[in-house]
Amino acid sequence: MQKNVLITGAAKRIGAVCAKHLHDHGCNVFLHYKTAEAEAIELSNELNLKRTNSSFIMQANLLIEAERSALAKAACLAWEGGIDVLINNASSFYPTTINDVTEQQWDELLGSNLKAPFFLAQSLSQTLALNKGSIINIIDIHAERGLPGHSVYSIAKAGLQAMTKVLAKELAPSIRVNGIAPGAILWPDKSCSEQDKNDILQRIALGRCGEPLDIAKAIGYLIHDADYMTGQILTIDGGRTLFY
Predict the structure, then answer these.
(1) b/e string for 18-43 if b means 16 or more Cβ within 10 A?
(2) Residue of 127, 128, 136, 126 whose CA lies nearest to 163
(3) pLDDT for 63-111, tens place per residue?
(4) Under a CB-based contact definition with an 8 Å cutoff, are residues 154 and 139 in contact?
(5) pTM of the model
(6) How many angstroms separate the CA atoms of 67 and 78, rounded?
(7) I want to staple 8 with a disulfide (CB 3.0 to 4.6 A). Which of 3, 70, 85, 90 is the partner?
């Protein structure tokens, strides 16, 4: 069954792979981006060549209320019936040490990883309820066990995990709310030493990084095949959390 899906942070990396995968399985995809305009245009054009008017894009800074609200409204108007699925994927990620963290960093990390997902869920709750839709939050295994040197990011993702569970109660029975906690899927854009990579790989039961498609397939399952699941977090980490 065709679904209309809004994906935040959809121009690159995991978001882009999810958009392609869902589109290949019949979904229409509304692609949000913040700065990656060229990538978003290229991806949307690629999808629309396969199926006309199946993809739209919109730029928005999710920390700005007016832009966030405009995004939700535009997504609802893109196709008849509004939005069926909200995927909160957009995320800021960078290190913060307790002695040096600034309020600006706090606001940015909490804003992108927690505040924006909450208020997008609020803005879209009416159309999602009418469509018996769902919300999928991309969390992180470090929501459970904080990542050293990334305290504010870990706090934000822990909040998103808590939000997933409480909204599953509050929005039931009309809207299902679930989360996915990825482990090592893609290395950060910024430098990550070979030693750091090797140390991480040694703590993964399956001995390798995952692929963005692993996340996309899990999202597809939550959308299409998990009608009796809400308030749950799927951990996709190759067994890394077994070794904490």
Answers:
(1) bbbbbbeeebbbbbbbbebeebbeeb
(2) 136
(3) 999 999 999 999 999 999 999 999 999 999 999 999 999 999 999 999 9
(4) no
(5) 0.96
(6) 16
(7) 90
Which one, of 243, 230, 147, 172, lies nearest residue 201 by Cα? Answer: 243
Cβ neighbours of residue 9 under 8 Å, at least 6 residues apart? Answer: 15, 32, 33, 34, 89, 90, 91
Tell me whether residue 94 is one of the annotated catalytic residues.
Answer: no
Q: In this structure, are residues 126 and 195 in contact, taking their beta carbons and an 8 Å threshold?
A: no
Longest CA–CA separation in the chain, Å = 52
Span 131-174, pLDDT tens digits:
999 999 999 999 998 999 999 999 999 999 999 999 999 999 99
Task: Look up residue 208 and give its two tokens.
Answer: 């390798």
How many other C-beta atoms can be found within 10 angstroms of the C-beta atom of residue 137? 25
Domains of the chain: 4-237 (3.40.50.720)
The mean pLDDT of 195-222, rounded to a whole number, is 92
